[in-house]
Amino acid sequence: MSYPNLIDPEVFAAEGQNLQDSFLLEELDERVSSHDYPADKQTRVSFTLQGGRDRLQRLFLDLNVKADMPLICQRCITPMPFLLDETSRIVLFADEESLDEAMLADEELEGMLLEKELDVRTLVEDQ
Length: 127
Prior knowledge:
The chain is of the alpha+beta class. Helices cover 21% and strands 39% of the residues. It has one domain. The protein has helices at residues 9-14, 30-33, 96-105, 120-126; strands spanning 6-7, 18-24, 44-53, 59-68, 71-72, 79-80, 83-93, 110-113, 118-119. The strands form three sheets. A five-stranded mixed β-sheet has the order 2-3-4-7-8. Helix 3 (96-105) links the parallel strand 7 (83-93) and strand 8 (110-113). The mean pLDDT is 84.
């Protein structure tokens, strides 16, 4: 694959691969980059993606997204410091039935269906 942030999530998780990269806020999807709250669209958003298996032998992706992102205060309309540091575990499922069953059993679970190709940038934007 020529685009380094396009992965096969099944292989990535099964092999315990790791990916680290960053994007400028303005490079992300319009639903993120066009938001009024960030004070600086040149803010660098970095991420780490780690694949693996959980104790139930389910494939997962651990995503950590970080940014030192000044936000516009809605009260005084001046920039204020904000540190974004979010981590999530996304468990991968082969079919909708398994995903639904797991999500009903565990309300905290973040799960998604396996895809042949996954754009990591989309995961970062969603986070």
